[in-house]
Design a protein that fits this description.
The complex is a heterotrimer of chains A (about 290), B (about 400) and C (about 230). Chain B has about 400 residues and is of the alpha+beta class. Chain B contains 13 helices and 13 strands. Chain B is elongated. Chain C is α+β, with helices and mostly antiparallel strands. Chain C is about 35% helix and about 35% strand. Classes of the chains: A alpha+beta (about 290), B alpha+beta (about 400), C alpha+beta (about 230). Chains in contact: A-B, A-C, B-C. Strand 13 of chain B pairs antiparallel with strand 9 of chain C. Chain B: GO terms for molecular function: mRNA 3'-UTR AU-rich region binding.
Chain lengths: ~290, ~400, ~230
């Protein structure tokens, strides 16, 4: 993300060294996810997610519009991810950096492309009218883990949101206000959750090139779950795995130059599953209230 | 040996001084009772409202050619040295029916849900949602093209909001009563409209969808010399007054073509919902017939007044100047104002005034009403000199006077 | 509706506040004073950047317009001479907004958006004040904003109802615990001169009441930040 914002060399060295020994500055173990606090707003579709010091608010809204011409039977679902300077002065207004673009691509892949929202159910009159569901993600405070937090936020907000009921009679579409008829929940097909790992290479750069005479050489690189801003800045690469409760991987993305061993990814996926299970239950619990 | 050191006074030409020290330049001018633009304090710029450009309007020109024109109304005004052109164009959108206007079948079903609250809503015809506005685009000529400047964006939003808040464009004015193009007994093509033909069965005009107009205003400003809100608003008002909306009809014959044409529409404007070709292609604007745009009130004018306090530190001795021959020719304001009251300046103009005047009062009075409630909008921007009650009252008085003058002119 | 405010809600921002008022919730974060980009740099004073983001959708001209309104008077409140060639960034994120129209048609959204400008400005201004205090930025005077409406029957009430005859947003500057001057006033609808001044007078009174409340909040936050003071 933001590379080493304001970190001195001493601090950098200290943090990486302690990570190598399995100690994190906030006292978590390497594979421990920060506590997630999900607050629902008074209005349907508003969710406030806190992941440690990271804070993200998601607002889901709906309006009636015309479907895209090439997809007359589908509603429209858009996710807006613009990071403003409120999250930290290093985010520039109106000019997304490469990392920010990556964040929005990943969130879109994790939720929209994985088919979490049933867009066909949003169609009112084929080719003419459909619902446009919009998720606005407001990033408010940044301490790493934007992807994970926004994913939790969007998927919770989608389940929290309900749209007014609509009936079609002939060519007329009637929209009922919420006091007239009970609003309708969106149909969510599955609940994808993102877990991001930060990859570290304890050795010098050159030593990481593997494939020496004996393939058994210990690679040494390791992954930590849910990095903070400082850890994110120090890491040599990231791995984001999106899974749902059915143990299906919806999306996997590894970025950064560090080559990682295949088995490690497997290991990460296993760890991710544990976290996903816990978070899905937490979301369910929150929504019950 | 110590060197002789002397401070030489630096002098600047008035233009340079106005740019680098606007406050100083303005204070010096005001202390002798004259403004940098040589107008007196409460003198407005002369406004010249030119006859509208009939030849570019779709419905007022005599030339057949311009029926292809998309301009529905226009204006051309000159305010001081600033020239403003305003043209009104339009489009139409499908209006989603609120459920109390939906067709009978639904209504039956609806009755269960009907409650007293809904009736209450119907009574409030004063509510803002019963009024419409236009979408203005302002271009201030600055010698190059590019993204709109902040000023342009802010003024266009101000015009948009003010027009809506002043409630002069009711929703009904923009609603379309669809006519019908059909064939009569002799197989001639005719177009009939519901309001002109009483003897025709009104069931002919039962259309499943309702449409209404959306108006856009393009305002071009040349040689800007100060804040242009007042002039832009005036241009918009005059253009709206001259606007003629086309009569629109539904073409029975062409309604089968609709699938071929649907691919033509590429606009995906969600906000204004530009009508889609599938349902819109049969809806056609009459090339000759039109009707006036109905406005509730077309005599609203904005007046911006700048407030500035005289600062004694900057003042120039009057005697020095009064002997000057050039100066005698000017009309000089002998300020007979109370201490502590700011000077009111009308029609802010030039660098010095624009940059040095922090406090402004923008007033829109309604001069046509007999009612006590004769103000539509008063915006007070403080921060410069102190805005006193007296100065607000005076500003409102000036604004009313100005509005009456403009009313006579237009 | 009662104002509900928290100070210091964000970690990265220099100062922050969260205010809910009249069904609108705003988070304000202030960055700076910090180094300005060359384009923004002013030799003798600070460059003030106000950024408003709407609850739904991308920022539009409407937000630009609101930014301008706030910037206009904020420039005269902040002691800019103390921060030459620096930039102070006021970020306002509108989070929640009650929408009383449930018809979901585009045109009623439109008028609601215009109608809500004053309510949003009201909340933003109060939030900006608390955040400025939290960010330790020097200001000449305190300020706060109140909104009043005249009902159709002609009575003056605090806070905006949508079906009012006229609406008045008044921002007063407060110096030495006394109302100092009118910083910003936006009055729309149909009203008389007398009503205008009555609303302004009422605004003076209410702004003192609101001020004592905001002051209490900011004193509390300062106490928490500087523990050694107590």
């Amino acid at each position: 993300m933001v590379k080493l914002a304001g970190l001195s060399l001493n601090e950098q060295e200290f943090l990486t060294d302690s990570l190598k020994q399995g100690i994190r500055s906030d006292g978590r173990s390497l594979d421990q996810f920060r506590d997630v606090e999900i607050t629902l707003g008074d209005q349907p579709g508003y969710v406030d997610v806190r992941l440690g010091k990271t804070r993200v608010a998601v607002r889901v809204s709906g309006s009636i519009t015309k479907p895209y011409e090439d997809r007359p039977f589908e509603g429209i679902f858009t996710i807006s991810t613009e990071i403003g300077p409120i999250a930290g002065a290093f985010f520039e207004n109106g000019r997304p950096s490469d990392e920010e673009v990556l964040v929005s691509r990943l969130i879109e892949k994790a939720i929209k492309r994985s088919g979490a929202l049933d867009v066909e159910g949003l169609c009112i009159v084929a080719g003419d009218k459909c619902w446009n569901i919009r998720a606005d993600i407001h990033f408010m405070d940044f301490d790493g883990g934007f992807i994970d937090a926004s994913c939790i936020g969007v998927i919770t907000a989608l389940q929290h949101f309900s749209r007014p009921e609509v009936t079609v009679s002939g060519e007329q579409v009637v929209v009922y206000s919420t006091d007239e008829r009970e609003p309708v929940k969106l149909s969510i097909l599955h609940v994808p959750i993102c877990v991001t790992f930060a990859l570290f290479n304890p050795k010098e750069k050159e030593e990481n090139i593997k494939g020496g005479a004996d393939g058994n050489e210990e690679a040494g690189e390791f992954a930590i779950v849910d990095a903070t801003m400082k850890e994110e800045g120090l890491s040599n690469g990231t791995l984001t795995i999106t899974m749902n409760k059915n143990k299906e991987i919806c999306q996997i993305s590894k970025s950064g130059g560090l080559p990682a061993e295949g088995l490690m990814v497997m290991d990460c996926a296993n760890k991710a599953y544990g976290i996903v299970e816990k978070l899905t239950d937490q979301i369910k619990e929150v929504l019950k209230q | 040996m110590s060197e002789e050191f002397q401070l030489k006074p630096v002098s600047f030409s008035p233009e340079v001084l106005a740019r680098i020290a606007p406050e100083l330049s303005l204070q010096r001018h005001l202390s002798v009772g004259v403004r940098p633009c040589l107008r007196s304090f409460q003198e407005f710029k002369s406004v010249q409202i030119n006859p509208q450009l009939d030849s570019i309007n779709r419905y007022t020109s005599n030339q057949g050619i311009s029926s292809k024109s998309t301009v529905l109304g226009s204006s051309n005004i000159k305010c001081g040295n600033t020239i403003i052109f305003c043209t009104i164009t339009g489009g139409f959108i499908e209006t989603l029916l609120p459920n109390d206007e939906a067709d009978e079948n639904v209504k039956e079903y609806e009755k269960i849900y009907e409650n007293s609250e809904k009736q209450e809503n119907n009574q409030q015809d004063d509510s803002l949602s019963n009024f419409r506005t236009v979408y203005p685009i302002i271009e201030i000529e600055r010698g190059r093209t590019g993204a709109p400047t902040d000023e342009e964006m802010i003024i266009s939003q101000t015009l948009h909001d003010t027009l809506l808040n002043s409630k002069i464009l009711p929703k009904e004015s923009l609603e379309i009563d669809l006519g019908l193009k059909t064939v009569d007994k002799d197989n001639n093509e005719i177009i009939i409209y519901p309001n002109e033909s009483k003897d025709i069965d009104s069931s002919l005009f039962q259309f499943p969808r309702k449409y209404s107009f959306v108006l856009y205003a393009s305002i071009q400003v040349f040689s800007r010399s100060g804040p242009i809100l007042d002039a832009a608003w005036l241009a918009l008002m005059i253009a709206l007054k001259s606007t003629k909306l086309p009569c629109v009809y539904f073409d029975e014959k062409n309604s089968n073509l609709l699938n071929d044409i649907s691919s033509l529409s590429s606009k995906k404007s969600v906000k204004t919902g530009v009508v889609n070709a599938k349902s819109g292609s049969q809806i056609i604007c009459d090339p000759t017939k039109s009707h006036d745009l109905k406005l509730n009130n077309s005599d609203l004018y904005t007046t911006t007044i700048g407030l500035i306090e005289l600062d004694k530190d900057f003042s120039v001795e009057i005697e020095d100047v009064e002997n000057n021959e050039d100066f005698k020719a000017l009309s000089v304001d002998k300020h007979t104002r109370n201490e502590g009251e700011p000077i009111l300046l009308c029609d802010i103009e030039g660098d010095a005034e624009e940059n040095a005047i922090g406090s402004r009062v923008v007033v829109i009075p309604d001069i046509n009403t007999e009612d006590d409630d004769n103000l539509v909008s008063v915006t007070i921007i403080g921060g410069g000199s102190k805005v006193t009650k007296q100065s607000i009252q005076n500003s409102i008085g000036l604004a009313k006077l100005r509005s009456k003058n403009l009313q006579q002119q237009s | 509706m009662e104002l509900d405010a928290k100070i210091g809600v964000l970690n990265n921002a220099g100062g922050s506040s969260e205010v809910s008022l009249n069904g609108i919730k705003v988070v304000c974060g202030i960055n700076g004073p910090m180094e300005a980009r060359p384009r923004q740099e002013l030799p003798t004073t600070c460059y003030l950047e106000v950024i408003i983001r709407p609850a739904i959708g991308n920022p539009t001209v409407r937000e630009k317009y609101m930014e301008d309104k706030i910037k206009n008077f904020l420039n005269s409140v902040i002691i800019g001479n103390l921060y030459p060639r620096q930039v102070i960034q006021v970020n306002l994120q509108i989070l929640e907004k009650k929408n009383n129209n449930s018809s979901y048609t585009s045109d009623s959204d439109e008028s609601a958006a215009t109608e809500d400008v004053l309510l949003e400005l009201n909340c933003c201004i109060n939030s900006a004040f608390l955040a400025l205090v939290d960010a330790n930025i020097s200001i000449y005077k305190a300020f706060n904003s109140n909104i009043f409406t005249y009902t159709h029957k002609g009575s003056l009430v605090k806070d905006g109802l949508s079906e009012a005859k006229s609406r008045h947003l008044v921002v007063y500057g407060i110096k030495n615990n006394k109302v100092d001057e009118l910083l910003y006033g936006e009055n729309v609808g149909r009203f008389s001169e007398k009503k205008l001044f009555m609303a302004l007078e009422r605004g003076e009174k209410e702004s003192m009441i609101l001020h004592s409340k905001l002051k209490e909040l900011s004193v509390e936050s300062v106490k928490q930040k500087f523990v050694y003071l107590s």
